[in-house]
TrEMBL record:
SUPFAM superfamilies noted in UniProt: POZ domain (SSF54695)
Source organism superkingdom: Eukaryota
Full protein name: BTB domain-containing protein
Domain BTB: residue ranges: 3-58
Ranges in a coiled coil: none
Pfam families cross-referenced by the UniProt entry: BTB
Residues passing through the membrane, by range: none
Amino acid sequence: NTPELELPGKKYSSFELFLRCIFPREYTLTEARIDEILPLADEYDVKSIRHKCESWLLTELEFKEAKVHPHHVSVDNDVAFLIKCFYYGSIYCLEELYKKSFDSILPYKLERYVENTHYLMLPEKNKRELTETRLLKIENDVKTRRYGDSIFASHDTYRYAPDLFK
């Protein structure tokens, strides 16, 4: 007779995966598995699993930024992954992941991620921080590239600063 413990609101498959991750080399991490076990690692305060997940996500970010196949599929896919990492960094206090994904998101236009599920779930303070930092970066870049006496560059901004408008 094996005693059973009920865990309301938890999927059996997710919790089994979570437990297997506690034991080294039991499972290989993937993005889908991290989506399942990171919330459990946070809830049960298992720092070693949170750290493994963060390390995997940071490595995946590097592969995507370097456009390594099969990690890099498309810019839209990469931006969605960046937003997911930013969200995870924010809600699970994964500081290195938060900083790296934050810096990597800045060049992208808001329209690329404004309707992304993870962006919509972000706390408002994180959305505001991202938007304000991006705006300050754009203003600074435009100011340093301006021509003439105008405060902001004219419509030529798009031509002279295309990297600001990915």
